[in-house]
C-alpha cells in the first residue's frame, strides 16, 4: 500500500528542487523509463533522468527569473496531483504566469514513473519571446 503522505512530501521536495533549478537532482527523481511531458506541447516528452534534466534545462535555463506559487497538493496512493502557477521572466523583459495542473505517479521504489503537466499552450505562446521559441524548437539533448 502506498504511503500517501510520504508521496505528497516527495512531490513537494521535487518542486523545491525544480525551482532551485537543480535539473540533475530533479532528473534523479525519475525511474530509468520514467516519462515527463508537457501535454499541450508537440512531441513525445522525455524519458529517464538524463533526458528529463535536459528537457527542463532547455526550457528553463534561459529564464532570468522563475517564481512558483504552490496552491494544492492532493494524493491518492501513488498518484499526486499539484495545482500551481509558474511565473517566467525572460532577460528581454517579457513575462508570463502559467497555471498548471501536474500529475505524478510514483513507483514502488519511490521513483517517478510519470509526470504530465497540463497548461494552456496559447498563454505561453502569446507571451514568450521569439528567440526563446526558436531555442526550444531546436529540442533538447541529453
Automatic annotation (TrEMBL):
SUPFAM superfamilies per UniProt: NTF2-like
Among InterPro entries, the record links this protein to: NTF2-like_dom_sf, SnoaL-like
Q: Where is the SnoaL-like domain?
A: 11-115
Pfam families, per database record: SnoaL_2
Domain of life according to the entry = Bacteria
Protein name listed in UniProt = Nuclear transport factor 2 family protein
Naturally occurring in which organism (per UniProt): Yinghuangia aomiensis
Amino acid at each position: 500500500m502506498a504511503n500517501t503522505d510520504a508521496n505528497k512530501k516527495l512531490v513537494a521536495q521535487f518542486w523545491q528542487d525544480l525551482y532551485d533549478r537543480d535539473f540533475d537532482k530533479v532528473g534523479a527523481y525519475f525511474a530509468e523509463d520514467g516519462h515527463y511531458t508537457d501535454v499541450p506541447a508537440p512531441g513525445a516528452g522525455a524519458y529517464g533522468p538524463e533526458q528529463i534534466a535536459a528537457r527542463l534545462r532547455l526550457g528553463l535555463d534561459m529564464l532570468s527569473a522563475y517564481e512558483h506559487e504552490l496552491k494544492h497538493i492532493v494524493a491518492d496512493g501513488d498518484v499526486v496531483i499539484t495545482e500551481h502557477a509558474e511565473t517566467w521572466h525572460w532577460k528581454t523583459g517579457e513575462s508570463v504566469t502559467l497555471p498548471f495542473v501536474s500529475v505524478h505517479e510514483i513507483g514502488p521504489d519511490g521513483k517517478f514513473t510519470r509526470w504530465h503537466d497540463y497548461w494552456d499552450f496559447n498563454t505561453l505562446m502569446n507571451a514568450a519571446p521569439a528567440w526563446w521559441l526558436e531555442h526550444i524548437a531546436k529540442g533538447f539533448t541529453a
